[in-house]
Predict the 3D structure of the following.
Amino acid sequence: MDKKKILIVDDEQDVLSVLEEGLSEQGYSVIATDNGEDGLALAKSERPNVILLDVLMPGMYGGVVATRLKETPETKNIPIIFLSCLYSKKEDVEKDYMLRDGVYVSKPYEIEELIAKIKKLIREEKALHERAFV
C-alpha cells in the first residue's frame, strides 16, 4: 500500500511540528509549509491526497489559498480540511463563502478527530477515483 500524502499549510511552527509528528506516526507522508504561496506551489508539484490549511495566516488568507487551489486543474480535486479558531459554529463557517468547499475543524482539536476526518476524505477520494474508471 502506498503512503498517502498530506500537505500542511500553517503559519504556526508548533502546529506544524505536532501535526507532522502525529501524522507521520500514523503512516502518512507529510509535507509542510508556513505560508500560502508555498502551499499553492507544493500542492501543484506534490499532489497530496489531503491538504490541511490554516485559515488565518499572514500574507494570504486560507480562503484565498483554497480558492486558487480549486481554480487550478492540477489541484482542484484535492480535499481540504480548514484548521482555525476563527469560527466555532458550522453556521459561521458557512457564511464564509471561501471555506464552503472544505471540511472545517476548530482549533483546538483532538488529533484523533483530525485523523478520522483525513481517513474519511481519503476513502471518499479513493471511491470517487474508482468510480471514474468503471
